[in-house]
Amino acid sequence: MGEPIKVLLVDDHQVVRRGLRTFLEVQDDIEVVGEAADGAEGVARAEELRPDVVLMDIKMPGMDGIEALRRLRALGHHARVLIVTSFTEQRTVVPALRAGAAGYVYKDVDPDALAGAIRSVHAGHVLLQPEVADALLSREEAGGGQGRGGSLTEREREVLGLIADGRSNREIARALVLSEKTVKTHVSNILMKLDLADRTQAALWAVRNGVAD
Question: Global pTM?
Answer without folding.
Answer: 0.69
